[in-house]
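User: Structure tokens for this complex, please. No commentary.
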Amino acid sequence: METRKLVIKNIGLILSGDMQNPIFDGDCIIAIDGKISAWGKEKDLDTEGATTLVDAKGVTLAPGLIDSHVHPVIGDYTPRQQQINWIDSTLHGGVTTLISAGEVHLPGRPKDVVGLKAMAIASQRWYENFRPSGVKVHAGAPILENGMVEQDFKDLADAGVKLLGEVGLGTVKDGKTAKQMVGWARKYGIQSTIHTGGPSIPGSGLIDADMVLETGTDVIGHINGGHSALPDDQIICLCESCTAGLEIVHNGNERAALLTLNTARELKQLDRVILGTDGPAGSGVQPLGILRMVAMLSSLGDIPAEIAFCFANGNTSRQRELDTGILEVGKCADFVLMDQAQHAPGKNILESVQMGNLPGVGMTIIDGVVTSLRSRNTPPADRLPEVI
Ligand SMILES: [Zn+2]
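Assistant:
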């Protein structure tokens, strides 16, 4: 097959996804066959032979945003709100990767062990085989039910399942059982997360800090509640008492989100902060949810915008062991190109975001392929990247 070479030139600002070094020098990025190969000054790079050439027109490039907490079901349809194309809309919000916290909205979702395993494997496959609008959906996240044994986790892992759905959404409601199952999952390379806080909808239950800590998942799912947050002292305790990812979601409590952020900052552990929407859910879908979280945390939490963006890509990449979301040689060429929105205050995109404004998305790229142009959902920017 012919080598695919993507060259993006005239980039105004390169955000890296790396909190230690969030802004990279340069105005040009090159990707070969969908993987990042080089960046820097255009004059220093080999830009010959591009199969796709993008003129960024001076806008900002960042690794594609990652939503760490979604509830997909099938294709680009969600039964929860009877809505189609919510993933396409999310791509228009700069998100190129979605991570399932459980396909819980499937009508008639099987709760017996063989059924839930079959569904998890099928979900993993249909999103592996079909990317809605090009978006990478990591799904097939089974919900823990009583009666599962170690062999079930081995079977799931052998079949390609890499995630657990939120612990606590099924019949496993006690820390002791949950801890044992999460341990089995981890043994076979399956990542875990947990529903933190009060019940989300009728039928779900409370999960408090004691249960979260006893269970010991890799990620503390929606630490700011989905929707109802735990009391402040429990949120602080969770931040202080473990090293798990601190996932803040759009569908949660914004005050609790800021408490989590401030606690993580005091602990000098902002690298644990990752973002999700928790959509589709009772709150609907949030195509701009991740951008809104970046702007909210940057403005109300007093976080430089270039750092807040890392919560939405690089931190999640590291926490979730993904090959995207950070600017490194060999990582997937998944990008969002964006600029300060028209008439938004601030002297540049970073200042504008830190004042609480959304940027205008002008293009997304996944695996080195242009997947969307000017966003139909974000406020428009003056400058628009162009495929030449
Ligand atoms: Zn939840």
